[in-house]
Amino acid sequence: MYWLIAILAVAVLGTLGIGGYFALRPPADSRQARRWWRGTMAIHLLLFFGAIGALLLLGIHAALAQQAPAPQTPAAAGGISVGFGLALLGAGLPTGLAALGAGLAVGPVGAAALAVISEKPEMLGRTLIYLGLAEGIAIYGLVITILLLGKIA
């Protein structure tokens, strides 16, 4: 299973490296660079998604192959199983992704709110409502994570 993680790391680091290289040194001939970029990205994406799929299949197989846990929690038993670890990762994903979405939403909304307030100070209340709506995305993710953690433990 470690070789799958190595493939994932190579694919992600290779994609980041190529993106950084092209950001620092844009190619002169854009047509040739586009062809090279497409082929390289196709290989990296194929490696990435293939390794993710294999990792999920092997991880699920390892989690299902374990014996049934005792009635106590895995942390109290002295060890954490693969299934419990994957469940905790899955429970943390909603908060992380919702916070990322809220950050992407609050940035433009906050900039526009500041621009409107500088022109019309009486619009402060409306802009705060829009900012609150954008920030509510993160709160929804946190609520989902709390509900999932209640089901896991």
Helix and strand arrangement:
Elements: H1 2-24, H2 30-65, H3 74-77, H4 82-119, H5 124-152
Helix pairs in contact: 1-2, 4-5
What would you note in describing this structure?
The structure is a single chain. The chain is mainly alpha-helical and 153 residues long. The protein has two domains: 1-65; 79-153, F1FO ATP Synthase, CATH 1.20.20. The chain has five helices and no strands. The mean pLDDT is 79.
Total separate domains:
2
Number of helices: 5
Our measurement of the CA-to-CA distance between the termini, rounded to an integer number of angstroms, reads: 27 Å
So what's the overall shape? flat
Q: How many DSSP E strands?
A: 0
What name is given to the CATH topology of the largest domain? F1FO ATP Synthase
Rg measurement, Å: 23 Å
CATH class (first level) name of the largest domain:
Mainly Alpha
Assign the structural class, choosing from mainly alpha, mainly beta, alpha/beta, alpha+beta, or little secondary structure. mainly alpha
Query: What is the name of the CATH architecture of the largest domain?
Result: Up-down Bundle
The major β-sheet equals:
none
Strand content: under 5%
Helix content: over 70%
* Average of pLDDT: 79
- The CATH superfamily of the largest domain is identified as F1F0 ATP synthase subunit C
Order of helices and strands: HHHHH
pLDDT under 50 segments (min length 5)?
none
